[in-house]
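Take a look at the protein record below with the fold in mind.
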Amino acid sequence: MNLVAAQKGSRKKRVSDTAAMSAPAYPPPYNPYASAVPGNMPPNMNMYDGRYVLPPPYTASPDYSRIHPSFPPADQGFSIPSQFLNEPLVANVAMQYGQALVGSGKQLVGQELEKYVPFSRIKYYFAVDTRYVTKKLGLLFFPFTHSDWSLRYEQDGPVQPRYEINAPDLYIPTMAYVTYVLVAGLVLGMQDRFTPEVLSIQASTALAWTVFEIIVELITMYITNIQTNLKTLDLIAYGGYKYVGIIFAVLLSILFHKTGYFIGLIYCSMSLIFFLVRTLKVQILPIGTSPSHHDPYMHNSGNKRRMYLLLFVAGIQPFLMWWLSFHLISPPVPKS
């Protein structure tokens, strides 16, 4: 029996030794929050390190490096893998999002600027071509040969200037203003009176008188309570056509001196008055207005006020043409 007992004891020992030797060493189950527990934090990890924004006991970032090899260890911080950004799908999504963001930003900025500066309306006045500019200049110099002064309209407003010669534009007045300043510099240089300061004064003075003219016309329309189809940009366009006549008169003065200047000034003044009266008559005195059934006197009074406004806008142009150009022809008398 002792032998049997000894064999059984030895057999149990051998079985346990074999089990102990052959048992695999499995790692404990992975817990992603194990590194966030203060007791399990490595000795070199500071709980209050600025990289970990969660309050205790979750002050450290979980270690995702065991899940996927592309993720860095927890003690190195989190960063997006570079191969993830190089994916075509991710790049296309990011590009589309950026384009949508930029487009919405431009639209928002455009809407805010449109409240103060009507860019869409200004584009209408610069919708011209070479054919329109040529015909318009001919109309300014020879308005007596023109017969149809009506202005065509579309559903959303008047026809663009390139398709309607009677429509106002800002291209010719702008170019005429710049040319007027250059011609003034040429004449002053021929008279040995040119300096950069004088040229800048010439440009600012002409611009100031144009602004003053528009303000006076707007105040007159407001005080007299005249309702017309004219807009502020229309008044600027019609008032800027006088620079075409000024340029013509000043250039004639180079060849024929004062005689040529006054001949050109008188002719251009008459042409501009005729042009403005026939053009503004359609806008200020629209055809087809019927008198009021309640008070015909108020209708007649309104027509008179409109006529006075028409004559004022057209009649002030010759004076401004002379005021902005006579000093270029008559140099100051030197003091003895």
Remarks:
- Residues 43-60, 288-298 have pLDDT under 50 and may be disordered.
